[in-house]
Amino acid sequence: MEAPLSVDNALALIESELGLACMKFDKEGTPTCSRTREDLLKYPSATELVRVQWNDTDDGEYEVTIIGVRHSEINRDDVLKFVARFGFSEEDFDAVTVNGQRLTRGEYTMTAMGREEFLVFPAL
C-alpha cells in the first residue's frame, strides 16, 4: 500500500479487511469504526474499535495520518490481513503488540499503544 492513503480508501480497507462498519467521512471530526453502524450511533466511544486521524493537504485531498486499531476485540486473522496490506507480517504484528517494538516496513510504521491497540502511520 502506497502512502499517502486517502481517508475514503482507508475506511473502505477497514470495512473490507476487518469486517467493521465505519462512519461516513464528512471532513470534520475523526472517523471511527465499530461492529455495526447502530453501535456507532448509540454508543460511539464505547464501541469504537478503529479510529482514523487525517490531515488535509494543499491540493484539497484528505490523507490518513494515523490509523488506531483496538485489535484485542477483533478477529486475529482479520487483523493480520489488515496489517499485511501495509507490508507487515504476523511476526511483525507480534513483535509490536507483544514485545512493544516499533517497526517500519516500506512506507508505513506500526507501534503499540498498550497491549490492546496498535497504530499504523506513514513512515517519516
Write a brief caption for the model:
The protein has five helices and seven strands; from the N terminus they run H-E-E-H-H-E-E-H-H-E-E-E.
Give an account of the 3D structure.
This protein is an alpha+beta fold and 124 residues long. The chain has one domain (7-122). It is 31% helix and 28% strand. It has five helices and seven strands; from the N terminus they run αββααββααβββ. It has helices at residues 7-18, 37-42, 44-47, 76-84, 90-97; strands at residues 21-22, 32-34, 50-56, 62-69, 103-105, 108-113, 117-122. The chain has a seven-stranded antiparallel sheet. Helix 1 runs antiparallel to helix 4 (76-84). The longest helix is centred in the N-terminal third of the chain and has 12 residues, at 7-18. The mean pLDDT is 92.
Helices and strands, in order, run as HEEHHEEHHEEE
User: How many DSSP-defined strands?
Assistant: 7
Strands across the major sheet, in which order? Answer: 1-2-3-4-7-6-5
Question: What do the pLDDT scores average to?
Answer: 92
What does the main sheet amount to?
A: 7 strands, antiparallel
Features of the shown structure:
alpha+beta, globular
Q: What are the SSEs and their pairings?
A:
Blueprint (H helix, E strand, L loop, with lengths): L6 H12 L2 E2 L9 E3 L2 H6 L1 H4 L2 E7 L5 E8 L6 H9 L5 H8 L5 E3 L2 E6 L3 E6 L2
Antiparallel strand pairs: 1-2, 2-3, 3-4, 4-7, 5-6, 6-7
Helix pairs in contact: 1-4
